[in-house]
Design goal:
Layout: H1 2-29, E1 34-49, E2 54-68, H2 95-124, H3 141-144
Antiparallel strand pairs: 1-2
Helix pairs in contact: 1-2
Length: 172
Amino acid sequence: MVTNIVSFVVVICALILIHEWGHFIVARLSGVGVERFSMGFGPVLWRHKGKDTEYCLSAIPMGGYVKMMGDDENPLEGGKTAVMDPDKAFNLKPVWVRFLIVFAGPGMNFVLAFLILASLPMLYGRGMLPAVVTDVVEGGPAAQAGLPDGARGAARNAGAPGHPDPEAGDAL
């Protein structure tokens, strides 16, 4: 039971971190100032003041937020920023830049999902169904070759003189 809860919290925190990092990195790349990057809500357990951004880890790990300069509607921070550089203000950026910043969070979740799904064949191998002969038609090529229903594919002519790949043989 405890393992399930801890596993759930770890997975949720990873998803939140990737999501919020998407907002953060696109905001920074587009010139928007980021005042705070917080993992979790509630009382701050740990904080680090970087050059421009305060990084926080809060008590309730079921969410997070990126507080950008000029984002005055954020009730978590209590309203307007006192002094703000207009070049770094979120609300003063063009709509397409704000759209990219807002979309970057869910976009990073899609990227994470793609990377996880793309890595599954690498982690667990590539499943291949065996070639099985079904529905042999009388007089058809499989019947003429003497293959019964249910015959599994195998290499033919492997090692035959003149065969281009002595290891592979011919496909059925």
